[in-house]
Amino acid sequence: MTVARRWDTIYPIYVDAKRPQQDGARRVNAKLALEWPLAELMAKACRMLGFEVVFEVRCVSLVIVVDRKAS
User: Domain containing 12 — which CATH number?
Assistant: First the structure.
């Protein structure tokens, strides 16, 4: 398995309660979604859970890349 395949990308839109789940933007149940998901805080939470995180700031969105083999 290559290193790149071990990583998952988490976009804040995936947990944004303001986005509809039907169009594929939000990927979690409304009960688990956040009103204002902040990528920096999501990255910090992933680090606190023991994941290796790369926090990328892009012009369109903020991205968190989590190594699922790290923990």
Answer: 3.30.56.30
User: For the whole model, what pTM was predicted?
Assistant: 0.68
Q: Which contacts of 24-32 are long-range, i.e. CB under 8 A and separated by 24 or more positions?
A: none
User: How many structural domains does the chain have?
Assistant: 1
Distance separating the N- and C-terminal Cα atoms of the chain: 17
Structural domain including 50 reads: 3-67
Task: Please state, in angstroms and rounded to a whole number, the distance separating the CA atoms of residues 64 and 27.
Answer: 15
Q: What is the mean pLDDT of residues 46-54?
A: 85
